[in-house]
Design goal:
The chain is α/β, with parallel strands linked by helices and about 120 residues long. The chain has a single domain, classed as Murein tetrapeptidase LD-carboxypeptidase, N-terminal domain (Rossmann fold, 3-Layer(aba) Sandwich), CATH 3.40.50.10740. The chain has 6 helices and 4 strands; from the N terminus they run βαβααβααβα. Strands 2-1-3-4 form a 4-stranded parallel β-sheet, sandwiched between helices. The protein starts with a strand and ends with a helix.
């Protein structure tokens, strides 16, 4: 059963922008309706400028979410076109393979790249 969801922004930082706050609130209300706890990872709401400049922060959020045994599911806040820039921060020193645990990972659009990364390290 899914009780705790971590939200990451792996492609874009739109969720951290003021113009998108109404959408974030709607999403949080809908998730609350399912009775789940939602946790934004440390950089998920840092905004477009910060997350564009810091792919290592986006990668760190994903690794932290996988390592946290209290998180049941990882949900990507938005798609985009920038996830490929996380590759060195996830694959250097086999970081992603060592962090991945059996969790649900869900997203759309650019998140397909993340699904391919996770498949490469053995997550079905």
């Amino acid at each position: 059963m899914i009780k705790n969801i971590a939200i990451v922004s792996l492609s874009r930082g739109v969720a951290g922008e003021a113009f998108a706050q109404h959408e974030v609130e709607i999403g949080l209300k809908r998730l609350a309706g399912y009775g789940v706890n939602v946790q934004f990872m440390p950089n998920a709401l840092r905004g477009i400028d910060y997350l564009t400049t810091h792919p290592e922060a986006r990668a760190a959020d994903l690794l932290q979410a996988f390592r946290d045994p209290g998180i049941d599911m990882i949900l990507c806040a938005i798609g985009g076109d920038d996830t490929y820039r996380l590759l060195p921060y996830l694959f250097d020193h086999d970081k992603l393979r060592r962090a991945v645990t059996d969790k649900i990972f869900l997203g759309f659009s650019d998140t397909t790249v993340n699904h391919m990364m996770l498949h490469k390290v053995g997550l079905p």
